[in-house]
Amino acid sequence: MKRLTVISSLNSSGSIDATTLDRLLSRASVEDLHALFELLIDGQGGDLERHPWPRILAWTLTCPNEIRMSLVSNIEGRSSPMHRLRLWLDGYTERFDIDEYAALLVEAEQEEQFTFVRRLFKNAAEGKRQVSPSDLKVLLGYGAGRSSLGRLDPSLEIALTIVADQAHGFVMERHVGEVLMRHFAVESSTDYKVVGLFDECAGRAVAWGYDTDDNISRKAKPKELFFCEGRKAAVLDKEYERSFWWCRNKPCFMPSRSCKPVEEWRGYTVVDMLSILGRSWSDEEYQLFLGGLNRLNALLARLNCRSCGHMMRPQDQSNFAFYRATKFKCVNDACAEKALVYLNRCWQSKCLSVIDSRDSKACSNGMYICSVCNGCCSSKVFERRLGAIRTVGQAVPDGLMQLVVANAGHAETQEYFCHACGGPVKVVSDDYRKTLEWLKGHCRKHPSVKDGGQRSDGGWWFKLDVPPEKYVSLKKLGFQLVKDKRFNTPLVAEPWSSDKGSVGSCMNNKCRMHRVPRYGPKAVFIE
């Protein structure tokens, strides 16, 4: 290939089209390729991140190793530091400078930061280089402070802190709390979740046969379960005589926690890093740690002060133990909002939603009401709390003892209260539920159920052709009757609720939860 041919192939901007590039590459000698690279570099002002460099680099992978290394070395020698980092991240070069690359890492996107650490440990697994404590120290040095160009991702810093400090095991306060408090001391945490370098739940594994993987399939993972927190049972499953892990009150027959072979390095987690470094860890400790991360991720969306946006800090707990704290407060001196905020998971295992005192009122027993299931308290929960307080030798509050003695839990008395106003909720009966299911199943299929559908809140409505006394019966069951000028008879509807999982309707006419949908401009609720 003549140098003149290469020059004539370049357009006015110093670039080259893909077809011409492929033609030149297919018949070029090594010397010609170096000349082509130099011309392209000169033509693009040394900008190696513009077209056609990704195409050229991908093409070098088809060359014999010696030629590829020569060509990549030429490109590398002319690259900016950031482009050299990306050449290493993409596997084109083995050149690695921890001091140079760590300083650039804060400018990279989250996924590139994760890839950086995973490739570093891949090289260690392959014996190409060691990962030393000083390497981890260099990387963590860019997490403690913030660069004007970016920062080390909090999830990555948590993982590196664990690896560097594994003598202490998995410690939420030391390895998570301090990191997140530092990162989100002056900015929002609402959109952040701890991700990436921990074993994520792949879905609940169900079994239908004996102990082979062929008899396993994955279902959807439980609500708000980010990481695999299943705990191995001490006994075998009675039906299939195989091991299982207990997770969110159901068995899982294959956990998502495992060390990965080097060819799966892009999925490396913190335990792979520990294994590569030859360090031991407790799977039980790791499982408990991942459970703590799951609870933390559920809380992170609510940890911001709604007045100033700063991250609230836990009260009456040391070492930033906010994954197990329940009371939080804004510590921003410039913020006028200093009210104590209660955050906790709903005690009902089928719900587990986050209860936020800013959105929920307390029941008559002083317990905040879940906005999803309307649950508030249970005598069994009071008894467990009493037992825990006695176990640690603390003084038992008089109010708690009175609740236990009186067996006053509302779950046992089947009393429910509205989370918006604290007033009583009319409980939906079994007859109501059975009737609703029949109406849904026969909508437009039965002569009596002419039409129907769902509102924006998920509640159902129906247009019926039934005698007048039937409407009276439906209203007594708990359905609402809605007039519409288009029809002679009212529409039958579920009580309006902003919460699909509500157990009933609020009895307080002035409460915002006591609303009904408007099916037309003249729709009126019939009391």
Strands of the largest sheet, in order across it? 11-12-14-13-16
Q: What is the helix content?
A: 25-40%
Radius of gyration: 31 Å
Q: Compute the separation of the termini in Å.
A: 90 Å
Quantity of strands, as a count:
16
Description:
- There is one protein chain.
- This protein is α+β, with helices and mostly antiparallel strands and 527 residues long.
- It contains 18 helices and 16 strands.
- Strands 11-12-14-13-16 form a five-stranded antiparallel β-sheet. Strands 6-7-8-9 form a four-stranded antiparallel β-sheet, covered by helices on one side.
- Helix 9 packs antiparallel against helix 10 and helix 10 (154-164) packs antiparallel against helix 11 (172-183).
List keywords for this structure.
about 525 residues; alpha+beta; four-stranded antiparallel sheet; 18 helices; about 10% strand
Secondary structure elements and their pairing?
Layout: H1 3-9, H2 18-26, H3 30-43, H4 53-60, H5 65-77, H6 81-89, H7 98-105, H8 110-125, H9 133-144, H10 154-164, H11 172-183, E1 205-207, E2 216-218, E3 231-232, E4 245-247, E5 250-252, H12 270-276, H13 283-300, E6 313-314, E7 327-329, E8 341-345, E9 354-356, H14 379-391, H15 398-406, H16 410-413, E10 425-427, H17 430-441, E11 449-454, E12 460-464, H18 468-477, E13 480-483, E14 491-493, E15 504-506, E16 524-525
